[in-house]
Amino acid sequence: MLSRKAVVLLAVFIAYAFFSVNNAYALFEVSIKKLRNLPKTYQYPAYIGDNKLFFAGDYKEKKSNKPEKITCASVYDMKKQKNIPLNSCMNIPRSMYVSIALPEDRVLVLGGDNRRNTKELRQTDSRNAEIYDIKTNKFRVIGNSNFEHRYSSEYLKLSSGKILILGNASQVEIFDPKTEKFEIPGELLFKTHNTIPKALIKEKPYYNYYNIPGCCYASQPVELNDGKVFFAAHGCSSYDDDSKNTAIYDPKTNKITVGPSQINLSSNSTRGVSKLSDGRVILIGVRNYKDERECEIYDPKTNTFTKTGKLKHGRKGACAFNLKGKTYVYGGWTGETFFERYQKTLEVYNEKTEKWKTVWNLEARNAGCPAVQISDKEVFLGWGVLIKAR
Question: Are 125 and 112 in contact (CB under 8 A)?
């Protein structure tokens, strides 16, 4: 019979072997690197090619009653891990905005917030748009978008070159890089639910309408094989709204139609969405941490949902992305009662077995992060994680 010391040593050996196997799988599957010397900003960057990320700038962290100064734009070289200041600042100070790389060496900087500036500016900057010209190293204002946009807004570059942007209040618009104009798709706008203060509606009439057949938020948009775009419409609250709506945008008709309802997923549980190699779409269930780890698959051919394997770990605020045709989920909060912790794991989905495989990495972790696609083999996750498929 084994002694207590032998039992402890055996348990340690088994645990070490388990983690070694998983780490070996991690080395075989992907490489994960924590980048250094990133700019101290909070916005999502835009990938401008040649292993470089564009950061438009942000507030300096100083408490003051006066309007805040901003840090100017910079380009971060991921290969050299070096940040290069550009000495060019946005015309309107803003934070938590959306930045999108455009053709002809341009970057669209859209919306955001200005919590520490004048009241008048704060009321307009969430619709204000600027374009940074890489060749001239200057920002120029191009006017306002139709709806408000912040860091949680999602976007997708369409095959036509136009950009579909999903806003914060079930509002969708199209940006044309050629004309630098915003347009609202569809012929009909739906009236909002009674969730917006009347005073705010009077001040901003466009708040009174939305054009997604859902409630408040939208998931990542995914372009289907037929060119249409699929996304889920979230509820206004994770506690009192059970919206299971989905929506489909058709670029040919420029209209949005109601898609099939999800089976169990609802509200803000479906921000993680990824396209599978066979053209179907997987929706990641990360709403209630450990209790709800369900995932569902949308099949465009049958226009229906089916259930699939559950996540290994609860991870609210996780990132979903695709590398070499495989779907990954990274980071997120664990949901402990007293202490929220970041998940330290990466999971990959196996389409054949419909199961998730855990990839361990004890260094890189985060939550609520953007996924900036560099290529089909590489993705940048804020703040500062670079993942490469082998």
Answer: yes
pLDDT for 147-173, tens place per residue? 778 777 889 999 999 999 987 656 788
DSSP one-letter string for 103-171? TTTEEEEE--B-TTS-HHHHTTTTTEEEEEETTTTEEEEEEE-SS---TT-EEEE-TTS-EEEE-SSS-
On the question of a cis peptide bond just before residue 356, with omega within 30 degrees of 0, the verdict is no
Ramachandran bin of 317, using left for φ above 0, alpha for ψ from -120 to 50, beta for the remaining angles: left
Residue 265 and residue 287 in contact, taking contact as beta carbons nearer than 8 Å: yes
**What DSSP state is assigned to residue 226?**
T
Q: How far is CA 115 from the centre of its chain?
A: 22
Domain range annotation of the chain: 1-34+307-390
The pLDDT-based confidence of 192 (bands split at 50, 70, 90) is very low
In contact, 231 and 219? CB cutoff 8 Å: yes
